[in-house]
Amino acid sequence: MNSSLRARVRPAAGVLACLAALGLPLWSAAETPPVVHAPAGTLQGQSDGRLHVFKGIPFAMPPTGARRWKPPLPLPKWQGTRAATKFGDVCVQPASRADSIYTWQLPAMSEDCLSLNIWAPANARKAPVFVWIHGGSLTTGAGSDKLYDGSRLAERGLIVVTINYRLGVLGYLAHPQLSAESRRNVSGNYGLLDQIEALRWVKRNIAAFGGDASNVTIAGESAGGLSVMYLMAAPDARGLFAKAIAESAYMISTPELRGAPYGDAVGEAAGVWLAGKLGVKDLAGLRSMDALAITNQTAASGWLPFGVIDGRVLPRQLVDVFDRGEQAKVPILAGFNSGEIRSLRFLLPQAPSDAAAYEKEIRARYGDLSGAFLDHYPASNVPESMLETTRDAMYGWTAERLVAKQTAVGAPSFLYYFDHGYPAADEPGLHGFHASELPYVFGTADKTPPRWPKVPSTQVDMQLSEAMLGYWASFARDGKPSAAGEPDWQPYGTQRAYMAFEDAPKPKTHLLPGRYELTEQVVCRRRAAGHIPWNWNVGIASPPLPPEAPQCR
């Protein structure tokens, strides 16, 4: 079809608006590859006949130059047709260790990285939307990682969106000069604000792809799971999603902008310290630095990116938000893996010389709770006890706390425990390692990074992936995880139900009895004392436990 005829047969603007209002996709039927007329502008993607894929769609103005360390601005509607056939640049990040199982080949990298990618069924009509937030310690990663390919979930009727957001110092720096130039008098949280802007873009545009803007599920793993909790706590994100999935999230204490409760660094003061380490005197100097240079130098300095409690974007500590019932009251699916720390051993303290030294340290640090602690994490197997201590304190406690708190506000809540192993992971001691559920959730066993323990193509592994794809897709569709031919997944509820993913899904109750309560008591006492953080400073790395406080009884 020639261009003049094609122009005449395209729907008029008023018709396009009506179709969008009805939630119908605005494909130009006569065109292959597919073309979408979205409010953001016209996009041309790729199609295999079943799925339409659009890559590298910008959702905000480039945060470069004077826009570095500013909240994202919506991108003006572009003119003409934008090709959406290549992933956008990944956000600036340091190179991963070459021997890491998580390392993948980074494509082009720049500050102009605020883009998203969409996988949509060709016949999508009011389809549920699944927005994936990648992990990577808020330091590395990208929505274009092959592990997050959305094809298999889209085949189950979802529209899958993966996003980029600013990372490291470029995404999370707080500094008094940045606060002074902000109309809210705050700084930091730029990566989180990018995520919120991406969700706003989805709300405005996803109907054009056949999606239902009122049925958006946010989902993420590790730092992506942390981001999901930030979004649940952030007033600016309210109404932008209807459900949440948090895989291996960690509800640790968070720095505050201008205070230092719980012993964490003061956000603005840490920014001033970092500028000094970089040899820069002011904000202009920071903005003049090369993006990769400042990223690498910051990573080497020991400065760590986290959200910052500023009273605006993040109003208070996550534990307080969920205790007060101020979070988004949406259905949640949350869980963790049995071997989280097996691939994250840098989170462990140095092991004691022997079992007697281990027990002595625990009794000195945990006082009246040391008996309960040693029952759960005995001296008879110190290496395993240390792995499980850090796992339970960070990931296990967080997952169960999320489903317990959402249950308390009346939101359907589902807990899981991923305890599946296979030879390539089990032989090097990586059974159930951190993120090992992802190839099963996305159906991307053939797209893992080069050093990732290769997932076998056995019937057991393929069927487990089919089950997890089904559970995750159905939760995104209607808030209740189910899978054809698989057991019913009961809400957490009063029976403390959960789904164990072993060689197959197995419904169970009371996950690791007593461990959630122990960590809850430890965290409560630290919060009551007011000067001790809660993160990976547990077990033999724990400061002396404060005495029981009235609010912890």
CATH topology: Rossmann fold
The parts where pLDDT drops under 50 for at least 5 residues are 1-24, 26-31
Overall tally of structural domains: 1
- Second rung of CATH, namely the architecture: 3-Layer(aba) Sandwich
Helix fraction by DSSP (H/I, runs of at least 4): 25-40%
- Our count of helices gives 18
How much of the polypeptide forms β-strand, as a percent range?
A: 5-15%
Can you tell me the overall shape? globular
Describe the protein.
With 553 residues, this protein is α/β, with parallel strands linked by helices. It has helices at residues 3-9, 13-21, 151-154, 168-172, 176-180, 190-205, 223-233, 267-277, 283-288, 291-301, 318-323, 355-366, 370-376, 382-408, 423-426, 438-442, 459-478, 515-529, and strands spanning 35-38, 41-44, 46-47, 51-58, 81-83, 115-121, 127-133, 159-163, 211-221, 243-247, 332-337, 413-418, 497-501, 505-509. The protein has a single domain (3-552), classed as Rossmann fold (3-Layer(aba) Sandwich), CATH 3.40.50. The protein contains 18 helices and 14 strands. The strands form two sheets. The chain has an eleven-stranded mixed sheet, sandwiched between helices. A hairpin with a 2-residue loop joins strand 1 and strand 2. Helix 12 (355-366) crosses helix 13. The radius of gyration is 24 Å and the shape is globular. It starts with a helix and ends in a 24-residue tail after the last helix.
